[in-house]
Write a structure and sequence with these properties.
heterodimer; A: about 525 residues; alpha+beta; PmbA/TldD fold; 2 domains; 7-stranded mixed beta sheet; 5-stranded mixed beta barrel; 12 helices; globular; B: about 450 residues; 6-stranded antiparallel beta sheet; 9 helices; about 25% helix; about 40% strand
Chain lengths: ~525, ~450
């Protein structure tokens, strides 16, 4: 029944092709046609071949994406193009070991070769393995899910996109000759997952997300940059929400302020307020990565690193931050970039606490890592970035909960701050391999004096250790926002996978933070 | 389908695409590749995952009226898909407003060097052959000392073909093999742990001595036990190969034309100036087949060429794409790389001129300093002044009176490249560390007279 409904929807889309974008969309449309005609059969045959080869568990994962970008640099169109990538992989457990093989050719004729290759890899793996792979038991899922959107960006003519970017560029250009470099872009992703495993789970999931960016470099007394890039799990309607006109105007003005009147902050320990985007980046690095269970188990030691949140800290009442610190993972939240109904092992995603009232409560996990540490279920964090990659434990949508008793908004928070600094936007970041010592800088900051915003600051750096930083969280607003950081989180070796995530929370104040310039 | 058959498919499809683009009144070039990739991830002395990928990519760049350009990529190598790609990209190129500075499609006949970039043995390798190498590394690492608690790492072998062709009747097809090995070994005593790391690249499976590598990494991990906390400040340091590879990457990015166009490089307007110590000499050597990034032509079809980037500390050349070169008024030198339709110039095959002193010699001349094995999460803080920050990782060792006397807990550094590279000595042993971060090169250890650590960690 589900497939009958899906078939009607897809056929209706196919009939309404009104642009070359959809005509070009052979990858995903053809994949859909493949599903309509024989994808159930394709997956079933793949699983059958894997099981015939001796697999005790098998999964077939068809995954693809179409990415479209239109960008300008200094008034010229840098590119208007599409990136299509799709294929499938078979992952098996044989002799208690994983094996995986993949190809870009989604055709039945390749199933035998790919299943055999995966089996061969598992057999090789089992020769150097101490502990057989075990997975948590998960409910069998059968579903077809699409993220909601209003306007398909691939239907919008390229001319319209260029026109908006040109308008944005002209707004920046009008700000005068201190502006030395301008760039902007809009990007659209259509991501597709078709998954089945030998336990009976069979899901189809399609995501559509949109991003926009404006960057300006101004040079006067100093050489300074300002940019703002945002993503949401929405269609072309996000371009209206991003508001290129207002964003370009604000970003250009702030770049000029940075290059002309902004001063470097003095070295000090003070109250530091972060807006939701930069708060999100701080959450990502200091909470997101150290709570990934594969890192905790040492599986990422060779590249991304390990974690200070070792297994002994789980359930021990470990104090991660102040009592106000409530960090929550919730990929079920619609429209945010980290939204997914299912992870890439076919596990339904869910909302769960990572930190509650300052106490470390839970890891992000997949089926294997959860089983290793004795959890009953995966938390649904297995994700891949491409069809030819194995799932890793990845963040999705991790945020700081707002304070229901805090000030209403940023103005209220600043009013309650006698002295401090308010930081905006990502400029630079670095953190150690266990995720404790971090040093981030913001694009623009403002002094706070007696409850009011004061002079602008440039080159503002904050440096802290993770528990110390979160221990200083003392006041947050009721107002909160989730911000999509784009497909920018890299992890995994030998093939690094860049995944899309979202973070955020309220405007938040942290006490006694080391601030200096650089 | 074998790699040979896929190579033929690339040839047929690029012919088809270029012919169709011409019929539509435009010009074009194709960058495409096919490869088989064997990958292994291992941790805590067991293999986590072996996998194989049969990978392919087809990028078409269409130029209309010489000034309007659009590029797109697909990995769907069906005729239907390629013809749709042509249709879309050609239409986009006709819509995109002309860029008066775009130099158009390359028409000059290029003299492409013939390079031996593949290992014939790679075609016959089986997963078991790779597993045997990993197993050897694990056994060798664990044999070093009972405190060795686990051997981790990853391995990647890629073997395939690249094809470049254009409507200017150019077609270049060449094979290539690369291997990357990464070892990360943990030593543990009581509640304390220490890790050491090594990554390196080679083109030939027979040159892959992971047992020897593992032994050395394990010995270093054991030496790292007992780390003490030391105070941040300025230290004389010896940057070992992996740390130097990071420094090389940061300096290379500053010579990229993208950074010049963005006006964000601390090396802007510094051609011919002494920017680093006279011992810092880096050459882009794309014909040096020892370098994994060696290749006969760049992504715009220009023949690659060797050129000095830094010579005796003097900045000699920036790296341009053809568009950036036209905008800046310079000559491109075949060092353009394309990613997602954006093309930048970067010296992608760098080799450092080695010094005459061994690493041991350099250490023996240090009274009071630190040996930095690896740098982690290094980023620019303020590009226009060349300031960077990052962490020490995988072994920070204390040097006193010319000897390594112990290890230290990791620290954060924040320093300016022109400052700490102003007074250096370069060692003689060249290696090719290759991390997942891309740009690599042949590097030697560097002793810097002063290097600024700014904060410390508990581990």
């Amino acid at each position: 029944m589900i497939y009958e409904i899906f078939k009607k929807v897809v056929n209706s889309v196919l009939k309404n092709k009104n642009s070359d974008y959809l005509l070009f969309d052979t990858n995903l449309n053809r994949t859909k046609e493949v599903i309509l005609n024989y994808m159930d059969d394709f997956i079933a045959k793949g699983l059958e071949k894997a099981e015939k080869g001796g697999a005790s568990f098998a999964e077939v994962r068809v995954f693809g994406y179409k990415y479209e970008t239109t960008s300008t640099r200094d008034g010229e169109v840098e590119n208007a193009g599409i990136y299509n990538d799709r294929g499938y992989g078979i992952r098996v457990i044989k002799n208690g070991a994983w094996g995986f093989a993949s190809t870009a050719v989604i055709e039945e004729s390749t199933l035998e070769q790919i299943a055999k290759a995966a089996i061969k890899e598992a057999e090789a793996t089992s020769k150097v393995q101490k502990n057989p792979v075990e997975l948590t038991e998960e409910p069998i899922m059968k579903d077809n899910y699409k993220t909601p959107f209003k306007k398909n960006p691939f239907d919008v003519p390229i001319e319209e996109k260029i026109e908006i970017l040109k308008m944005s560029d002209s707004i920046i250009t009008e700000k005068g000759n201190m502006v030395k470099s301008r760039s902007n872009s809009m990007t659209f992703y259509n991501v597709y997952l078709d998954y089945g495993n030998s336990e009976g789970t069979r899901i189809t999931q399609e995501e559509l997300f949109t991003g926009a960016n404006v960057s300006v470099i101004a040079i006067a007394e100093d050489n300074q940059s300002r940019s703002e890039g945002l993503f949401e799990m929405r269609g072309y309607e996000f371009i209206d929400k991003y508001d290129f006109e207002a964003t370009s105007d604000r970003i250009a003005k702030e770049a000029i302020i940075l290059a002309t009147e902004a001063k470097a902050p003095k070295s000090q320990k003070t109250a530091f307020i972060l807006e939701p985007f930069q708060l999100g980046l701080t959450i990502h690095e200091s909470c997101g990565h150290p709570t990934e269970l594969d890192r905790v188990l040492g599986w990422e030691a060779d590249f991304a690193g390990t974690s200070f949140l070792t297994q002994d800290k789980l359930g021990s009442g470990y104090k991660y931050g102040s009592e106000k610190t409530n960090l929550v993972c919730d990929p079920t939240m619609p429209y945010v970039l980290g939204h997914e109904k299912y992870d890439h092992e076919g596990v339904a995603t869910k909302k769960f606490d990572v930190v509650r009232n300052g106490i470390f409560e839970g890891y992000q996990s997949d089926r294997q890592t959860a089983k290793i540490v004795g959890l009953e279920h995966s938390n649904g964090n297995a994700r891949i970035a491409r069809y030819n990659r194995i799932p890793l434990v990845r963040m999705s949508n991790l945020y700081l909960e707002p304070d229901t008793e805090g000030p209403k908004d940023l103005d209220g928070l600043i009013e309650e701050t006698k002295e401090g600094i308010y930081g905006i936007g990502w400029k630079s970041h670095s953190i150690d391999d266990k995720r404790t010592n971090f040093q981030f800088s913001v694009q623009i900051a403002y002094e706070i004096e007696n409850g009011e915003l004061g002079k602008p600051l440039k080159n503002t750096i904050y440096q802290a250790s993770t528990p110390q930083f979160w221990g200083g969280l003392d006041l947050m607003t009721k107002e909160w926002h989730i911000k999509g950081l784009g497909p920018s989180c890299g992890k995994g070796a030998p093939h690094m996978q860049a995944i899309w995530i979202s973070h955020g929370g309220p405007y938040s104040r942290f006490q006694d933070i080391n601030i200096f310039s650089g | 389908m074998s790699l040979e058959q896929q190579k033929e498919l690339l040839h047929e499809l690029s012919d088809l695409a270029l012919k169709r683009v011409k019929e539509l009144g435009a010009e074009a070039f194709v960058n495409s590749n096919v490869s088989t990739q064997y990958a292994t991830r291992f941790s805590n002395s067991e293999i986590l995952q072996n996998y194989v990928d049969f990978s392919r990519q087809f990028q078409l760049t269409v130029v209309y009226n010489g000034k309007q350009k659009s590029a797109s990529v697909t990995n769907d190598l069906s005729k239907e898909s390629i013809l749709n790609l042509v249709k879309f990209v050609t239409k986009a190129a006709k819509i995109v407003p002309p860029d008066p500075m775009y130099p158009g499609i390359l028409k000059e006949i290029q003299d492409y060097p013939k390079l031996k970039l593949n290992d014939p043995q790679a075609r016959s390798l089986e997963p078991d052959d790779i597993v045997d190498k990993i197993k050897g590394a694990i056994i060798a690492g664990e044999a070093v000392d009972k405190s060795v608690a686990g051997v981790s790492g990853n391995f990647l072998l890629s073997d395939g073909y690249r094809l470049f062709s254009s409507t200017s009747d150019v077609e270049v097809v060449y094979p290539g093999t690369t291997m990357r090995s990464n070892l990360n070994i943990q030593a543990q005593k009581n509640c304390e742990e220490s890790r050491s790391n090594s990554n390196f690249g080679t083109r030939f499976f027979s040159k892959l001595d992971m047992e020897k590598e593992s032994t050395e990494v394990a010995e270093r991990a054991v030496k790292g036990l007992g780390a003490v906390s030391i105070e941040p400040g300025e230290y004389e340091v010896l940057l070992d190969h992996q740390a130097v590879a990071t420094v090389l990457r940061m300096t290379a990015f500053a010579t990229s034309s993208m950074q010049l166009i963005n006006r964000r490089s601390f090396l802007m307007d510094k051609i011919g100036q002494q920017v680093f110590d006279k011992d810092y000499t880096i050459t882009n050597e794309p014909h040096n087949v020892e370098l994994l990034s060696a290749r006969p032509l760049d992504d715009e079809g220009l023949a690659t060429q060797s050129f000095p980037v830094f010579e005796n500390g003097v900045l000699k050349n920036y790296s341009y794409s053809r568009l950036h070169a036209a905008k800046i008024g310079a000559q491109p030198k075949g060092c353009a790389l394309s990613f997602m339709g954006r093309t930048i110039g970067i010296p992608f095959a760098m080799a450092m001129k080695p010094g005459i002193k061994s690493k041991e010699n350099l250490i023996s001349e240090m009274d009071d300093g630190l040996l930095i094995t690896n740098l982690h999460y290094t980023n620019y803080v303020n590009p226009p002044v060349g300031s960077i920050t990052g962490m020490s990782k995988d072994g920070l060792f204390i040097i006193k009176n010319g000897e390594i006397v112990g290890s230290a807990k990791n620290m954060r550094f924040t320093d300016e490249l022109p400052r700490f590279l102003a007074d250096i000595d370069v060692g003689k042993e060249l290696r090719q560390p290759v991390s997942g971060m891309g740009i690599g090169g042949l590097v030697a250890p560097i002793r810097a007279k002063t290097f600024r650590f700014t904060s410390k960690t508990e581990h």
